[in-house]
Amino acid sequence: MAAAILALWNDYPSKLAEEYEAWHTFEHVPERLTVPGMRAARRYLSSANSETYFTLYELEDLNVIEHHAYLDLVRNPTPWSLKMRRYFSSVLRIPGVVTSAGGNGIGGAALVQAYSVGRDEAHALACELEIVLQQLTEKARILGFRLALAAPNQIYDVFPQDEPTDPDTVDIVVIAEGSSVGALATLQNALTQKIMLMLQPRTCLRNDIFHMLTSYRGDEFPNHRSQLTVDEVSNIWVG
Fold first, then answer.
1. Looking at the 3D structure of the chain, how many domains does it have?
2. CA 130 vs CA 60, 106, 140, 230: distances in Å
3. Cα separation values, 236 from 25, 27, 229, 233, Å
4. Residue 140 CB-half CA count within 13 A
5. pTM for the full model?
6. Residue 26 has what DSSP assignment?
7. What is the DSSP letter of 141?
8. Which domain holds residue 80?
9. Fewest CB atoms within 10 Å of the CB: 134, 147, 219, 222?
10. What's phi and psi for 35, nearest 5 deg?
């Protein structure tokens, strides 16, 4: 199990979706997976909003996003990346430590939620929530789950954080995997109500069901961004 995750939500104009998909598939995620410690990544699209995306990176630990190779990607984007950044909106970025996980396999869909809760209660609440999700796994309601805790309002050089929260809180990211959007939709409301009662969150930051578009393994890519062959694809779009 990866010790940490980098969870990212963003909106992107549907009229530019074709280019966004090409850029994200052939340049953006492959670049990130050249960074040491980036184990895997997945890209999702919201089942409710065709402009809302979710990207999940699996990390060896949180130090990965402080590595000079990662910071180089953030601070020195390619012309294509620089162009694409202009159209991002509703960005939420949460790097967090994985506190528990269960189940097996990768589902075709994921129910992804993020909550802001009081700092003093966060770890105890995460333990209670783990029990609930483990029971859903054992009853074959979900394929698996992951829980992560994160410091709030972490600085990101590229975009301002959407929906800043109180400094005395902790973010809890909940990822429940299912075989399909329909399978997760049947339990979303009941699970959300249970989580809301259990956590008593200050804020619900995100609550959406996504269908998976692409899954990547880190070992599929070279060890440096310069070794990626994306020029032919990017030349189609960058002009």
1. 1
2. 21, 18, 15, 41
3. 14, 13, 14, 6
4. 0
5. 0.95
6. I
7. S
8. 4-237
9. 219
10. -75, 130
**Using CA atoms, how far apart are residues 190 and 21, in angstroms rounded to an integer?**
33
* Residue environment code for 96-118, b if the CB has 16+ CB neighbours within 10 A, otherwise e: bebbbbbbeeebebbbbbbbbbe
Residue with tokens 């299912």: 178
CB atoms within 10 A of CB 76: 10
User: In whole angstroms, what is the distance from residue 20 CA to residue 68 CA?
Assistant: 26
Please spell the DSSP secondary structure of 172-236, one letter per residue: EEEEEEESSHHHHHHHHHHHHHHHHHHH--SEEEEEEEEEEEEEEEGGGS-SSGGG---HHHHHH
Question: Strands 109-118, 169-178: parallel, antiparallel or unpaired by DSSP?
Answer: antiparallel
Task: Count how many residues are written for the chain.
Answer: 239
pLDDT in tens, 145-202: 999 999 999 989 899 888 788 889 999 999 999 999 999 999 999 999 999 999 999 9
Both tokens of 209, joined, read: 């069901």
